[in-house]
Amino acid sequence: GESTRPGAEPVAESEELARVVPVVEALAGRVDAMLSVDSSTPAVMRAAADA
After folding, report:
1. In the predicted model, what is the mean pLDDT of residues 16-30?
2. Which of 8, 32, 36, 47 is deepest in the core (most CB within 10 A)?
3. C-alpha distances in angstroms, 24 versus 2, 5, 9, 16?
4. Mean pLDDT, to the nearest integer, of 22-46?
5. How many CB atoms are located within 10 Å of the residue 17 CB?
6. DSSP assignment of the chain, as one string?
7. pLDDT score for 12
């Protein structure tokens, strides 16, 4: 989703969702492991949990 390094450009919520959700959906169906998503955006957290 979004870099937290100093000076990094912010990423729009819609862009972060587009980056994170497809990856979580793909992994959730392929791996037998708990996935973790680190985000400061509530909508991204919810979408990742729902995926």
Report:
1. 95
2. 47
3. 15, 23, 23, 12
4. 94
5. 19
6. ----STTPPP--HHHHHHHHHHHHHHHHTT-SS------S-HHHHHHHHH-
7. 96
Task: Name the amino acid, one letter, at 38.
Answer: D
Structure tokens at 8: 């990094």
By CB atoms closer than 10 A (0-12, 13-18, 19+), residue 23 is middle
Whether residue 51 contacts residue 19, with contact meaning beta carbons closer than 8 Å, is answered with no
Kindly state the tokens that stand for 48: 């990742």
The whole-chain average pLDDT of the chain stands at 94
- Spell out the domain ranges in the chain: 13-50
